[in-house]
Specification:
alpha+beta; 6-stranded antiparallel sheet; 17 helices; about 50% helix; about 20% strand; binds adenosine-5'-diphosphate
Length: about 725
């Protein structure tokens, strides 16, 4: 296939110049041609006018001659045949006439008198005597064609008029006119030197001619013209003149004398103006074209150079090199050049910013205390920071390009591959650290250690990458285990202590009762009061021990979770509080309560504490307690609302701690453990507990039992 060549800017500009100039030049040429046509038409019209005027003048000359001859034809000397006197009279008539000489001729052509010779001389017979015969026959004047006069012995023209007497026409009076007269008449008209004008007789013979009359006198006019003369009386057409020049000829033929005037203008001189104009136009066009093309060539060259320079600059820009664009001398190109330079500066700035951002990032990554690794989809490590080196004991040089699972115990590798697969398939882009999942890493020396990992998926120009951050949680796991152990110890201690305290306490209480009952008579009032206070203190200590025990039991006496119908459970709680409700005149109501998975005994304890508190912290009012539950996305939110004294917001956290009370024993009896037990129960069920309250109006305790309580039910 032939590939189409793309034209250069120079070619394009040259075409543009041609496209603009050529039509203009053609238009000017057409205009010139139209102008020529117009001037030709004008010339033809002018020539026809001139020819008409001239033929009228010729006919006028004949008429003048006829008039002179007519006057003489009535001369008395003719009938008297006094030709000598007639000659004198005729000669006198010639003085102000266009006639050269006058002759009297008999019908047969014999001359009787001729002013051209002295009277008495023998006269030759006039040629073409049929002219006289027709004059005598018609009685009308007649003009001859050019003929050779025998007296003058040169070409002449004869005007003949008839002479009559009583018997009829007897003679012809002839006026001889010389062609020179017509020549003069013609030359008086002053045609331009290049125009050829001719006066021809009725036969078409040249009588007068502006050019070379001597050569052409008496000769027939140009054959082309002659043919036309026989066909029409007036026209304009192109013909070749006697000298062989092509002329535009205009001719007019007299209807009376049948003589002709023709005026020819050489075609050459007619078109000379046009040719001159065309030459001029051609020259000008060539000049214009070459000038414009030259300018287009220079401009095209400059544009092409600008484009090439800009192209090279753009390539340099792409290659990240410093770009310098010289002045190109074209405003737009200079603007593009400036834009490229600006772009290069911006790119350089962006590059610097990118490099410093990379350096910062590298600094962060390298100084991070967590191990940071980046792996590709194929699990090969592409980034491995200093903390990773320290954590795993492998230098970066050895780990880059290695598979990530080299850093974990062999038994987890298969599971890990599955995780990664799923991670990229489900489209999760990140998983945070701290969701409690503990994984295991393996050091270069084979040691295993617990790690927490966060992973995020990145779409980069190099494809999908996974960024993995690993934290060694050995210390935390160890601390957690130690804490759990110490908590357990503490709980056991509290349990054992409170359990073991109960027996001696009961004994003391029993002894006090015995003392009071059996020895009341021997004791004075002071001793009785002491015994009474001791019993009260024992009772309180017993209460405290009981509450502490129940607090400890929340975590020690755990039962598997089972479905708990909360409505029924709440009814049971109301029933348990029956006495207190009756005494205080309280009203405990409830909305519809759901079924949840949980430890029923603990949940009863929870509700018992909250409803009990609602009734207790009421000061003078009839307590109103309302229990409800509503669903949220994770489980159930329970609320226990009362119309009690309310709690200032600053105590809202504190009241859930062990032994934290806001009142003295005298105001409200209590141990300060109830709400701590509540929190422990709720937390064991995976929920949260909190309060909203308006002092003086009441409090609402909220706690949640999440759905996952079901999962935690396993022992
Ligand atoms: P106790 O009731 O034995 O003092 P709790 O742990 O049950 O201990 O309560 C801690 C403190 O919280 C109480 O001393 C009391 O000041 C306040 N409190 C608990 N429930 C309410 C309530 N419904 N209205 C007002 N104050 C309350």
């Amino acid at each position: 296939m032939k590939s189409k060549r793309i034209p250069s800017i120079r070619t394009g500009l040259a075409r543009l110049v041609a496209a603009c100039l050529i039509p203009a030049i053609v238009m000017v040429a057409l205009f010139l041609y139209a102008d020529l046509q117009r001037s030709q038409k004008r010339l033809v019209n002018d020539s026809i006018e001139a020819a008409r005027a001239l033929i009228l003048a010729v006919d006028g000359e004949f008429l003048g001659a006829e008039r002179t001859l007519r006057a003489l034809s009535t001369s008395p000397f003719i009938p008297r045949q006094d030709f000598a006197a007639l000659q004198v009279q005729s000669a006198a008539a010639l003085s102000d006439s266009n006639i050269n000489n006058i002759a009297l001729v008999e019908p047969g052509g014999q001359q009787l008198m001729n002013t051209a010779t002295s009277f008495g001389q023998p006269l030759p017979k006039a040629p073409n005597s049929n002219q006289f015969e027709s004059v005598l026959a018609s009685g009308k004047a007649s003009t001859s064609n050019l003929l050779n006069g025998p007296v003058l012995n040169r070409p002449i023209i004869r005007v003949a008029v008839p002479v009559r007497d009583d018997k009829g026409f007897t003679h012809a009076l002839v006026g001889v006119m010389l062609p020179g007269y017509f020549q003069k008449l013609l030359l008086q008209r002053r045609f331009g030197s290049d125009r050829i004008a001719v006066i021809a007789d009725a036969s078409g013979a040249v009588v007068a001619r502006t050019h070379e009359i001597d050569r052409f006198l008496g000769k027939p006019v140009a054959p082309g013209l002659l043919r036309r003369l026989n066909m029409e009386d007036e026209n304009a057409f192109e013909v070749v003149s006697l000298e062989g020049i092509t002329v535009l000829t205009v001719f007019v033929r007299s209807p009376t004398s049948r003589w002709t005037v023709a005026i020819g203008t050489p075609i050459d001189s007619l078109t000379a103006d046009l040719r001159r104009s065309l030459w001029l136009l051609g020259g000008l066009a060539a000049l214009l074209m070459s000038g414009a093309l030259g300018l287009a060539w220079i401009a095209g060259g400059r544009i092409a150079l600008s484009i090439r320079t800009l192209g090279a600059s753009a390539l340099a820009l792409g290659g990240g090199k410093a770009v310098v664009v010289p002045q190109l001398g074209i405003r737009e190109a200079d603007e593009v050049g400036k834009a490229i330079v600006k772009a290069s500066v911006m790119l350089a700035d962006a590059d610097v910013a990118l490099k410093s951002s990379e350096a910062r990032m590298r600094g962060i990554v390298e100084s991070a205390t967590d191990a940071i690794l980046t792996v590709g989809k194929d699990q090969r490590i592409v980034l491995y920071n200093a903390a990773a080196e320290k954590m795993f004991g492998w230098p970066a040089g050895q780990m880059l390009g290695e598979r990530l699972d080299k850093l974990m115990p062999a038994r987890f590798r298969a599971v890990h591959a599955g995780h990664i697969e799923r991670f990229s398939q489900v489209g999760t882009t990140s998983r945070r650290m701290g969701d409690g999942t503990v994984l295991y890493g393996q050091r270069a020396d084979g040691d295993e250690f617990p790690v927490e990992a966060s992973i995020s998926q990145l779409e980069t120009a190099d494809g999908t990458l996974f960024s993995v951050i690993l934290r060694d949680v050995t210390a935390r796991v160890r601390d957690h285990e130690a804490l759990e152990r110490s908590n357990l110890d503490l709980q056991q201690f509290a349990f054992v202590a409170s359990h073991d305290l109960k027996t001696p306490l009961r004994s003391i209480g029993g002894f006090m009762q015995l003392l009071e009952r059996n020895h009341a008579g021997q004791l004075d009032e002071k001793a009785k009061a002491l015994i009474h206070r001791t019993s009260a203190a024992v009772h309180r200590l017993d209460q405290l021990t009981e509450d502490l025990l129940s607090y400890a039991r929340v975590n020690s006496e755990v039962r598997p979770f089972a479905p708990v119908r909360c409505g029924e459970m709440a009814e049971e709680v109301v029933h348990l509080l029956d006495d207190a409700i009756r005494q205080s005149g309280a009203l405990v109501t409830m909305g519809e309560l759901p079924e949840v998975m949980g430890d029923r005994t603990q949940l009863v304890q929870l509700l018992l504490n909250l409803v009990g508190n609602g009734m207790k912290y009421c000061r003078g009012r009839e307590p109103r307690v309302h229990i409800t539950a509503q669903r949220d996305s994770h489980g159930w939110i329970f609320s226990v609302a009362d119309n009690g004294i309310g709690i200032d917001a600053k105590h809202h956290e504190k009241i859930f701690e062990v032994f934290k009370r806001l009142h003295t024993q005298n105001e409200y009896a209590g141990t300060g453990i109830g709400l701590a037990v509540c929190r422990r129960v709720v937390e064991r069920h995976g929920g949260k507990i909190w309060i909203t309250s308006v002092v003086g109006e009441g409090s609402i305790f909220y706690f949640t039992i999440p759905d996952i309580a079901a999962e935690r039910s396993a022992p």
